[in-house]
Amino acid sequence: MGSHGPGLTLACCLLLAFTCGPVLGQATRGPQEQEEQEGTKEPLLEHAERVEEKHEKYSPRQGDGRPASRCYRCCDPGAPVYPAIPVPQINITILKGEKGDRGDRGLQGKYGKTGSVGARGHVGPKGQKGSMGAPGDRCKNHYAAFSVGRKKPLHSNDYYQAVIFDTEFVNLYGHFNMFTGKFYCYVPGIYFFSLNVHTWNQKETYLHIMKNGEEVVILYAQVSDRSIMQTQSLMLELRDQDEVWVRLYKGERENAIFSDEFDTYITFSGYLVKHAAEP
Asked: Which percentage of the chain shows pLDDT scores above 90?
């Protein structure tokens, strides 16, 4: 048999035990156990007889006209077909209620971001010519001018002297005061001024054109054997109530201007060039 002999013998023994086990178990039971088994069979038979009697009592008889009810499965070939019951429909409009009151206004939401600038639109058509407007106010012209002279000579002394003029050539609206020798500005703007004098031989000529209390320009002539005509001119921007006049220097030097009653050697003139309100 070799090495396989013990293994084969063990397998045969196990097979024999499984085959003969139940037969040996029944054979080993004693007479007492068999009697108990026969006693249990009688009650089982009595229970079966009672079930059959109950079934006959409640089952329909052959004389009754009512057919016996029977259960069917959906997969049986002869199963009855029951009609489909329709689903009831509900009219929703009947259940709809009346419209309610309007609710309160809600809070304002947050502002959105600013959008980008859109493209420029096309040029529209030219409109019709408008009607003529009402006539405007009359154009206002502003004027200011003066021209004065002196026929008397003037010598210097220990203090400054305002040159007083005795001859009036032009004095528009009376802006030049002949008593004080000063021009008073009532029309603000740009003015032109001119001063002409005749020097005195062997004497010095020393004058200033003044604006308010300030020296603006000088008219000067040195000592000479001959008398000559000297002139000075300028433009000034004046405001309302400004003053312009001529002043003779004080007598630290021999200072004088010449004139006589027959001719006018000393003149002072001025006029408005441009009004301050004009562009």
From this structure: 33
Neighbouring CB atoms inside 10 A of 227's CB total 17
Kind plus residue range of the DSSP H or E element containing 197: strand 189-199
**Residues of the chain scoring pLDDT < 50:** 1-3, 23, 27-28, 30-31, 33-34, 36, 38-41, 64-65
Q: Please, what sign has the CA dihedral across residues 132, 133, 134, 136?
A: negative
Q: Which residues pair with 266 in a beta bridge?
A: 150
**Parallel/antiparallel/unpaired status of strands 205-211 and 214-221:** antiparallel
Give the integer Cα–Cα distance in Å for 6 and 28.
31
pTM of the model: 0.51
Taking the CA atoms of 239, 242, 247 and 250 in sequence, report the sign of the dihedral they define.
negative
Residue partners of 247: CB distance under 8 A and separation at least 6: 160, 161, 162, 163, 207, 208, 210, 215
